[in-house]
């Protein structure tokens, strides 16, 4: 193992970790993945919380620094590895990207993540998550009416796309009607043609159980 390579603490089904995986792939940054099994509560181990007090994924060790929270990691990568930029040069377009990122990372994902769903009766989790994601993505769809080109903001991949596509993993999982959101669906289709997105998909991760890969293939999502 190269001691100078970034280390990403990740979980195959974490949409937050997937955002970072996409950005790393897009920028062609080699890294070592360290899976953290959220279902086994490995994120709450003494060793892990000593590094990441919040006990969440992702967490990245890079350039001698430990950075927690996906948006902080994404901004750090953009500032220190400017190749294949994920923010436009125009300030207004940058603001548009960050607005979409904020809706997803503050207004959707935290409200339907595993820690929240565990507080609900199992019989209510599907409908709750579906409702939260549907409402949030409807907001994103309306924002895209003003900003979208080939991707979320214009015709180049940005941090907004890095955040949107992984959120759709959960949308399909919980039965959200994505075909009713044509702009989101079109952006997803274009993104899924790109190697950076395909290799970051949860089914491509080494910690994804084979049984889930097989089940997902049978369900088409």
Which terms summarize this structure?
single chain, 4 strands, 221 residues, alpha+beta, four-stranded mixed sheet
Record the SSE blueprint:
Elements: E1 7-10, H1 15-26, E2 32-35, H2 46-51, E3 59-62, E4 65-68, H3 70-80, H4 91-107, H5 114-117, H6 122-147, H7 159-173, H8 182-191, H9 195-198, H10 210-219
Parallel strand pairs: 1-2
Antiparallel strand pairs: 1-3, 3-4
Helix pairs in contact: 1-3, 1-7, 4-6, 4-7, 7-8
Please give the radius of gyration in angstroms. Answer: 17 Å
- Residues in β-strands, percent: 5-15%
DSSP helix fraction:
40-55%
Major beta sheet, strand line-up: 2-1-3-4
- Counting DSSP E segments of at least 2 residues, the number of strands comes to 4
Q: Gap between N and C termini, in Å?
A: 34 Å
Structural class: alpha+beta
Q: What is the H/E order? A: EHEHEEHHHHHHHH
Low-pLDDT segments, ≥5 res: none
- Helix count equals 10
General shape: globular
Describe the structure.
This protein is globular. The longest helix has 26 residues, at 122-147. The chain is 52% helix and 7% strand. The mean pLDDT is 94. By secondary structure, the chain is of the alpha+beta class. β1 (7-10), α1 (15-26) and β2 form a beta-alpha-beta unit. Strands 2-1-3-4 form a 4-stranded mixed β-sheet, covered by helices on one side.
Short description:
52% of the residues lie in helices and 7% in strands. The chain has helices at residues 15-26, 46-51, 70-80, 91-107, 114-117, 122-147, 159-173, 182-191, 195-198, 210-219, and strands at residues 7-10, 32-35, 59-62, 65-68. The radius of gyration is 17 Å and the shape is globular.
